[in-house]
Structure formats: structure tokens, C-alpha cells
Amino acid sequence: MDGEDDAPKSLMEEMYANGIEGVDDAPSSSTSTTIRKNRPIISGEQLDIEAYAALYSGRTKIMRLIFLADHCDNSGMQLEALRMAYDELKKGENTQLFREVVQKIDGRLGPNYSMDATWCAMVDRKADQRKDKLESELNAYRTNLIKESIRMGYNDFGDFYYAHGALGDAFKSYVRTRDYCTTSKHIIQMCLSAILVSIEMGQFAHVTSYVSKAEQTPEALDPPTIAKLRCAAGLAHLEAKKYKLAARKFLEVGPELGNSYSEVIAPQDNKVIDNINFRNFLELVPEVRELINDFYSSHYASCLEYLGNLKSNLMLDIHIHDHVETLYDQIRSKALIQYTHPFVSVDMRMMADAFKTSVAGLEKELESLITDNQIQARIDSHNKILYARHADQRNATFQRVLQTGNEFDWDVRAMLLRANLLKHEYNLRASRKI
Amino acid sequence: MNSVEGLLTQIRGLSSTASDVLSLQNVLKQADESLHAESTRLLPFLDQLDPSKHSLGYLYFLEACTAGPVTTESASSFVLIIARFISSCVAEQIRLAPDKFISVCKRFKDQVLSLEEPLRGVAPMLTAVRKLQSSTEHLTTLHPEFLLLCLLAKCYKTGLSILEEDIFEVDQPRDLYLYCYYGGMICIGQKCFRKALELLHNVVTAPMSTINAIAVEAYKKYILVSLIHHGQLSTSLPKYASGVAQRNLKSLCLSYMELANSYNNGKIADLETYVQANMEKFGSDNNLGLVKQVVSSIYKRNIQRLTQTYLTLSLQDIANTVQLNSPKEAEMHVLQMIQDGEIYATINQKDGMVRFLEDPELYKTCEMIEHIDLSILRLMTLSKKLTAMDELISCDPLYLGKAGRERQRFDFDDFDSVPQRFNI
Q: Which regions form coiled coils (chain A) (predicted)?
């Protein structure tokens, strides 16, 4: 049953390569994996596409390259990305994506990269043939009612669809293997495949459900699998904007984390910095470490500067892209709140310097924070000072008491009135019946 | 004629003691029809009766007189007669024939209105209400009539005095709706928005089996007053509101709900355009004045929010934040609010700055203590009332019958809240 084991393994390695898990010492047995380095590329302006793409392999690589092309302003980089995507696609079998990329290239790269229709047709024909073969195999297995082979058949189908970019069908096939899973290993494998496809499809609800399913299997899971599951869960939560949960999940993965993930953690949990595991990781990512240290020690200006630099890189990452803005805002407000917390009064001019904004802009930001009740303070606009304000407990209590009394009064009176009306109506009805 | 004469003697004879009066009542009931038959000729006979001593008889005669259509000339004389009667009649005798009294008063009100002098009717009606009530917690059918006269005569203060009393007993639900609706309008006129809100809330949440126009109109006003007073509108009616109301009220007051929505968004320009667009709709409901107040209240709401975030603020900034046109306008608004006691602030004209102060109430004075004390006593009486009513209902056979039918049959372990014999 060796052939069986190989197929699932390569799938898992795909997941590896998709940036969910990067291990420094990747198992040498995996032949198709590209080792993902932990040295992130933070150069600020120019992104080295080749190096970036080298980090990933498989489908994600293509997706990321396309994403890069879409979001890059620099047309040189755009073309570069598209060219690499083209090459990558030619190696694979996904004709639909191929057509998309060709459209995007739009003949800008020269005659070599135009629509290769014959290649497409050939790939399509091969695909159909394989599909028929798989179908017939599957039918044969079904008549034989051998669970294991049926499962393998569906799995193959899933792989096939995945390679061709028909993600929905791939997902369905993987899910169907569920009925035929006999050991927990199979269940885990099924879950992992389902997770992979769901992530690609962007359906993160499925991801969460499959992650929890995988976690529930009774057999002990080995660390890489657990890590992968955690990462997947983290991604799902990221999409659902539950940043805090996402941060926690990522934290649990352990020291092997991608660059972007640390960004998620930074705004949410200052305690993270005390986490030893995280510290180990930080050694590997110098810039991010600088950033977090600054945050911690209240050097907000430099901290925000680093953030600004990282921003352009982060924009190009598929998963983080949508959330960059929100995360940045949150980081900024957290910094502001932390700054004002220990003081009774703060000179806004000094604060504006520390945060590198103008006094007016700072005032606006503070105003919104105060209205959201995140800072307990009031602004003296004339002298430009922020005064901390502590609610007078005694007054507040009195006010609440009087208010509660009034409400009780009103409620009870209204209730008695209504009860009287109901009784009257009931009596009326009763008397009419009689 | 003879029967009438005979009736008169009987009235005169039997009006002295309570038992006599009861027998008189029977006599009068039987004679009622004949009286009505001769309604046009009864007027001179009234002079032979003394309203203070022969109230019941007088009442019957009077009712028969006013039953038919009344011309405008005789209207004023009738008004005088009825007014005098109301002021001098004896309450106990009246209460024996409440419907007659009510119909007399209603005719009185109609005549006063036809003469277009509602003010003349206010005082007599007040006396009438007082005499008909069995206690101050009792709502009679005359209450809404009285309030209507107050509204039309624009003497709101008298109306307010009646509204101060709590109502717990009601004869007819329709009376309550009208009473609360008119009462709400009077309070709005006097700018007691809190009480108006209370009254309108009572109408909207009163138990009703079908939706009626009073509730719809009340709900419209309720939305507007809620916006003025609280700055927001709770979008769903409380659970105890009748199902009919919950389902239908909102759909019948759509433009008002829209108004509330745009108010919540806080953009003054949008609110004003919306009001302009629907001006006639609001006008046809006679709510134009209220709507204008809603618009002006949004400025106040915004300024009040500023007091929470700022300690001092320039007038220019206030004008910008609240979307006013100039610092002068801002100053006027702030000044008005300080005078009305809605915010605590001082204006520094030299710098053009407003300094917001805390509520100076320290809750240390004797008046405050007294106020709290009174509130506590009041609430204790209310609680006692509530428990009394609860006990009363639990002894009521109808309730027990219904509860007995609906309780679980097979839970023997449960504490038996209803005695066995009610298990139908």
C-alpha cells in the first residue's frame, strides 16, 4: 500500500509549501517541497520577486504571483510576476488559470508568452482522459465495496480536480472520502485536504469546522500536524476578523512562524513579548523585533516608522492584504491609549511630536477614542492639554439611584394599569359568554 | 303632563334619605321613556327642582331635555343650566346614574364647542370629573372630554393638574387611549416631555385586540417626543405591548421611522432635507411643530456629546463640529442650553472659548435628601399595591380556572400552585 501513502504525503507537503508551516530543517524525504526560509524579505521598496516566489511552491505560488501582479504599481514587477506565473502554470495542468494569466500579460512580454492554444487543448484532453479513467476506477471500487479503495478513488479525484483548479469539485470529493475513513489517520488526512481546499476557496468557515474535527480525533497528533492545524485555524480567524483569537492560535504554533503572522500578534497582546518561544523566533526576524521592542518601550515614533516600512510588503501578501489597514489603526490606537494611561494631564504638543502628527490631527484621533470610551479623559482645546478624568463615584451612584427609582415607579404604574385593562377585558369577554 | 307633575312631587318627596333615593331611582327608571317622549316641553319644569337636593331627578329631566337636537340659541341657556347643575349637584346621587350624567356632560361639551367657547366648559367639566370619580385613581369617561376641552381652550395647566394623578382603574379601554393621547398632547404643549413620553407609551403598549387610529397617532407622536427627549428611539416595542401593535404600528408610521433613522445618523443636512421633503405629510398629522423641535434637538444632542470629550472648546470648533453656520450661532445655542439647564458651562467671550463644567449637584443638601426620602416612600406604597393586586388575582376563580387547565398534568413532583379542584 505504498502508493497510497505517497499521494497523501505529497498533499501534505503542498500544505507545507503553501506557507502554512515553515520548518527550518525540512524533512529530506520530501522531494517536491521547497524549503521555506525564515529570513523574510523586508527591503521596504523593491520586492525581490524571484526570492519571494522561491518561498512558495505549487498552487499558492501561482496565486501569490497573480496577486502581486494585480496589486503592484510598478509595471516592471508586474510583468516579472506574470512571467513567473506563466512558467509555473506551464509546468502544471491548470488551464483555467493559465488563460487568466495570459489575458493579464496581454502580449506585453513578447511572442513567447502568448496564448499557447495547442498546449491548452492537449492538457485538456489529457485531463478528460484521466478523469474518465478515474471515474471508471471509482465505479469499479464501488461495486466491490472495498472501503479503502473507494476512499482512495475519491482522494484521487480530489487531487485531480485540485490540479485543474476546480476547487469546488475537489472539496466535494475530499468530503466524500469522509464516509470511508477507517482510522483516525485517514480522518486527519481528509481534514487536512479539506482545509487546504477551503483555504484556497476562501471559505474559512469550513476551515474552522474541519480544524475542530481534526483536533477531536482521539489519536495523538504529531507536532507538525498540530502546528498546521493551528495555522489553518489562525488563518480562518484572521478572515473572520477575530484578531485576538488568531493571535492566540498563531502563538500556539510555536517558534516557527512566518513574518506576517508576527504582525498580527503585535497589536493584540503585549504579553506576547514575554513569551519565550516568541522571543526565540524574534531572533530570526530582526526588524520585527526592533518594532516590538520600540512598542514596548514607548518609542512610538520609530515604531510607527517601521510599521510604515513593512506596510508595503504586507500589502502584497494575499492573506493579510485586506486586514492591513485595520491592524494598523488598531496598533496606532493601542499606542495612543498606552501613552495616555499613566498621566493625569498630558501636553498635547509633546504627544504630537512623539507620534509624529500635528496637534489638530492628534486631537481628532483622541476625540474619537474618547467617544468610544477607550480613554477616560477630556481635552482642553484652548490650552491643548489632555486631562484624565475619573468619574465621581458618589455622584454617579446617586444619579443611578434616582434614575432607577424613577424607572421602577413608571414601570410598576404602567404594569398595574395594564393589568387592570386586561382584567376588564377578560371580565367583559366572560360576561359576554354568559 | 300629569305624569310629569306626579313625577316631580315624587322627586321632591323622595330625595331626602338614601333609601328613598334608591326607590326614587326605580321610579325614575320606569318613567324614563315617558320623559324622553316629552323632552321638548320639560324645560320649564326644571325650575321647580333644586339641583342640590333633587340631583337625581334633575339629572333625569336634564338628560331627557338634552337628548334631542339643540339649536344654537338654546345652546347657551342650556350651557348655563348644565354648568349650574354640575356645580351644585350632589355626588352620591349622581353616581347612581353615571351613564346619564356622562351623556349630559357630553352634550354639554358639544354645545360648548358649537358655541366655540371651550373655555367656558373647562371649569364645569373639571368639577364634573371630580364628582364622578369614585377615587382619584379612577378614570372616568369624562376625563378625555375634559382634556379635549383643555386642549381646545389652550389652558394646559388645568389639564396638567388632572394628569398629575395616577390612574389605576379604568372603565373603558377607549377612555384610557383617548385620555393618554390628549394628556400626551397637553404635556407636549407644556414641554414636559418626560410625562408626555410616559403617557404616549401607555397608549402604545396598552393591550388591544385590534389596531386603532388613536394608537397609530399616539405612536407617531411617541417617536417624535422620544427623539426630542432621549435623542434616540428604541426600534422595537417592549414585549408587553400587544401583538397587534407590534406587528402593525411600524408599518403604519413609515415616514416617522425614516425620520428617526436619519436622526440617528447624526447628519443635520440629511435630516433637514428629509423634513422638507415630507413637510405636508407631517403637517397633515398636525405634527409639524414637533418635527421642528426634533430638528433643533439634534443640535443640542451634538453639543451635549461635546461636553463629554472636551473641557474647553472654541466657539468656532463647536460651530464646525455641530455643523452650524457661524460661531455666533453656536454661542446662541450654548447660551440657550445653559439657561435651560441642559448643560453646565461658561462662555468666555474674549477668547471665544466655552468651558464645560461638571454637574454642580453634590447630592449633599437637605432638599436632595428629602427628595430621595419621598421617592422611597412612594415606591414602597407602589410595591404594596402591586403585591395586593397580585394576591387578589391569585384568588380570582377565573384566573385559577385558566391556570389549572394549562398546568402540566404529569409533574407530580412540582409544587402544586393551583388547588386540585381547578383541574378541568
A: 124-151
d(CA B185, CA B339): 25
Q: Count CA within 13 A, CB hemisphere, residue B411.
A: 8
Report the C-alpha gap between B386 and B395 in whole angstroms. 15
Is the CB of residue A407 less than 8 Å away from at least one CB of chain B? no
Asked whether residue B194 carries a pLDDT value surpassing 80, the answer given is yes
What percent of chain A has pLDDT above 90? 0
How many other C-beta atoms are found inside a 10 Å radius of the C-beta of residue B223? 25
Indicate the DSSP class of residue A242.
Answer: -
Residue B42 CA to residue B45 CA, distance in Å, equals: 5
Mean residue pLDDT across chain A: 61
Contacts of A406 in chain B (CB under 8 A): 375
Q: Do B170 and A417 touch (CB under 8 A)?
A: yes
Contact B173 A425 (CB under 8 A): yes
What value, to the nearest 5°, has the Cα angle with vertex B98 and ends B169 and B27? 145
**DSSP-assigned beta bridge partners for residue B353:** B314, B348
Q: Over the stretch A115-172, which tens digit does the pLDDT of each residue have?
A: 566 767 777 777 788 888 888 887 887 777 777 777 777 777 777 776 666 767 777 7
C-alpha cell at A101: 494569466
Q: What are phi and psi of B16, to 5 degrees?
A: -90, -50
Gap between the terminal Cα atoms of chain B? 59
Q: Which residues of B47-59 are buried (b: 16+ CB within 10 A; e: fewer)?
A: eebebebbbbbbb
DSSP characters over A163-217: HTT-HHHHHHHHHHHGGG--SHHHHHHHHHHHHHHHHHHT-HHHHHHHHHHHHH-
State the CB neighbour count (10 A cutoff) for residue A60. Answer: 21
Range from A66-80, A239-253, A294-308, B354-368 that averages highest in pLDDT? B354-368
Tally Cβ neighbours within 10 Å of residue A122.
12
Q: Does A428 touch chain B (CB under 8 A)?
A: no
Q: Which of A60, A256, A38 is nearest to A167 (CA)?
A: A60
Rounded to a whole number of angstroms, the distance between the first and last alpha carbons of chain A is 86
Q: How many CB atoms lie within 10 A of CB A211?
A: 26
The rounded distance, in Å, linking the Cα atoms of B393 and B28 is 37
pLDDT at A27: 35
Q: Is ipTM beyond 0.95?
A: no
Q: Give how far A170 is from chain B: nearest CA, Å.
A: 46
Of A381, A395, A409, the CB nearest to B313: A381
* Nearest residue to B6 (alpha-carbon basis) of B40, B48, B37: B48
Question: Which residues 226-255 of A have a C-beta within 8 angstroms of B?
Answer: none
pLDDT exceeds 60 at position A257: no
Whats the size of chain A, residue-wise?
434
C-alpha grid cell, residue B174? 377607549
pLDDT single digits (tens) B405-422: 766 555 555 555 556 555
Helical H runs in A316-433? Answer: 324-340, 348-355, 359-371, 393-433
